[in-house]
Specification:
- The chain has one domain.
- Strand 4 (116-117) and strand 5 (123-124) form a beta hairpin.
- The chain is an alpha+beta fold.
- It has helices at residues 3-12, 54-81, 105-111, 159-163, 180-183, 186-194, 197-200, 208-212, and strands spanning 19-24, 37-44, 86-88, 116-117, 123-124, 132-139.
- The longest helix has 28 residues, at 54-81.
- The strands form 2 sheets. It has a 4-stranded antiparallel sheet with strand order 1-2-6-3, sandwiched between helices.
- The protein has 8 helices and 6 strands; from the N terminus they run H-E-E-H-E-H-E-E-E-H-H-H-H-H.
- Helix content is 33%, strand content 13%.
């Protein structure tokens, strides 16, 4: 097995990440020549039992964001010490008009076999549902990759659809290549959360759709 992969496995299996996997980017990314592989890291979190506790959910996400930042920094240093070329994919950075990032963390996780895209347009994992923070590090060498998820396991469940306060989730089932707008009115969701800013002093995290998902309970 690839020696870099073995070293990563030893490093990441020390217990500070919830799950991880590697994705083959060679045929799907404009970055494939420089970065043929992606390391996808998941950090699961316990969400508030009360889905209306937006403040509690916000603080939970702040904690997991901070923890993931430390994990990514430590992983980057680990790779750097071994002279493995890599780059950390930034969090956020969405285009304000399309609300899409230049690189999709969810897509890398799907290609790594860590989960599928749910009806809520989020990564859903068998172990933790959609209650995960995702980070991606592009790797400048080929690594053994996971088996991509090519089928949704949501089935007839529509818990996220019913939970969405703005009705922004269409309820259609994802399959590879499904455009985001077929699953979710992303601009409507974003506007709904922005409209809470005067009340909260910040954009609302909402999270009703991922809190309602039965996967990972």
């Amino acid at each position: 097995m690839n020696s870099i992969f073995i070293a990563l496995n030893q490093f990441l299996s020390e217990g500070f990440v919830s799950a991880w996997g590697t994705a083959d980017l060679r045929e799907i990314s404009s970055l494939n020549r420089k970065y043929p592989s992606a390391l996808s890291i998941l950090l699961a979190y316990e969400a508030p039992a009360d889905p209306t506790d937006e403040e509690g959910f916000f603080h939970t996400l702040e904690e997991v964001r901070s923890k993931m930042d430390r994990i990514v920094s430590e992983t980057s240093r680990f790779l750097g010490r071994r002279n493995i070329p890599h780059t950390v994919v930034p969090q956020g950075g969405q285009d304000p008009w399309t609300l899409e990032a230049a690189f999709s963390h969810k897509s890398a996780a799907v290609l790594a076999g860590l989960g599928w895209i749910g009806k809520n347009c989020l990564l859903v994992t068998p172990e933790f549902g959609p209650r995960v923070r995702i980070a991606t590090i592009l790797i400048g060498c080929e690594l053994p990759s996971g088996v991509p998820m090519t089928k949704s396991i949501c089935g007839a469940c529509d818990a996220c659809v019913s939970a969405c306060p703005g009705g922004f989730i269409t309820g259609l089932t994802w399959e590879p290549g499904t455009p985001r707008e077929r699953l979710l009115d992303a601009h409507g969701c974003n506007d709904f959360r922005e409209n809470r800013r005067p009340l909260l002093g910040r954009k609302s995290e909402c999270g009703r759709c991922l809190l309602a998902c039965p996967w990972g309970r």
